[in-house]
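Page 47, continued from p. 46.
Same chain as before, 170 aa.
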Amino acid sequence: MSQLYIVVPRKNLLAPEDPPKFYAVARSKFKATVKDVCRRVSERSSYSRGELEGTIGEFLIEVINVLRLGAIVTLGDLGTFRMSLRTGVPTATEKEFKSNCIDRGRIVFRPGSELRELCRELDFERYAPTASTLALPAPSDGDGDGKDSGGELPDPIPGGDDKGLPDPLA
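Result:
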């Protein structure tokens, strides 16, 4: 499996007079929604797409509930979710620190063994736009609200299904 990438220049904000350096940025091939994943699973199992979508929805509600209780959620080989805090105003002493010094909470995901292995096995391929991809309009986020997602959605894949999803098992 190869991961597409583009190369972008980035300036060092601590040394703005320095010339930019170039970094690789991952380029997604397509975006798969919950419905897309459920459809693919239902095609090779006895579960219906609706059952899968309902189960995933309820599962996400419970993950949120358990995180609210202050627990770490471990999902086997998928990974672990936990809460983390961002301090907005650090203090000189512990006694000065109050809860209003905390800016916000955030959720940290640590990938499990199978996802870490996937990252180790990747090959890398530089993205080369074709004349047909250059002529395409900027992608929307596909949720029907007409708002553009800033061009972060992937390019369509020729030979995929009606949503541009190639079959990775083929």
